[in-house]
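Q: What would this chain look like folded?
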Amino acid sequence: MEMIKLTENAEDILEAIYAISREKKVVRVKDIAGRLKTTNASVTVALKSLSKKGLVVHEHYGYVELTEEGEKIAKKIHERHKLLYEFFHEILGLPSDTAEQDACRIEHYLSKEGLQRIVKFIEFIKKCPEGAPIWLTNFYYFLEYERLPDSCFRKERLTSVSEMKMNEEGIIVKLAGSAETRKNLIKKGFVPGATIKVLDKKGKKITVQIKDKKEDLSVSLSKKIYCLG
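A: My prediction, written as C-alpha cells:
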C-alpha cells in the first residue's frame, strides 16, 4: 500500500480528532478548531482533503469521524506526541506547558530513527530496576545548580583496561569515547557488568578475556573501558 503523505496541519487535525473522540461522544468542526486554535473554515478545508485521502468521514455540518486507516495513522501520531512530551517533561525535566509546546514543534520533523531512539531511551529509564541512572540524577543536579556534583569527579576506584596489570581482573562499569566506539565495544561483549581479565600486553596491543573469549584491543581503545577492581 502506498504511503499517504500528510502535511503538518493534516497530522495535527488527525491527532486532534483522535484525542477529542476519546473525550466526547462526537467530534465537531468547532471542537477541532478550538483545540488547534484556528478557524472553522480552515479545519473544513483540511477535512475535505483528508476525506479524499480516505482518512476521515465528514458530511457538511455533520460530525467528524476517522476511518479505520485514519484512526491507525492518528493513533501513531498521538503516541509519537505523547512520547516526545514524556521525553521533554519526565526525562529532561521541562515544565509541562513547555514540554507540550516543544513536543508539538518537533514531532513533525523528527526522523523515524530519532524517534525510535527516544522511545528506547524512555523505555530504558522506566524499566531500570534501580530507578533513574546515577548520571541522570547528576544531570538534574547540574540543571539545578549549574555545576557538576562531586560524584562526577570520584575516579579513585575506576581503572581503565590500559592501566590494569597482567592477569588482573575487573568488572566493566563504564565505556567512554564516541557513540560509534561504545556501540562497537558493546557488540563485542564489552558491556557494563561483564568481567574482563588482562592476558597479555605487548607494544600497542592488549589481549583480554571477556566472558569465555579472547579479544585484542589497541591501547587507545583499552583506555575507553573502565573497570572496578
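The first strand starts at residue 56 and ends at 58.
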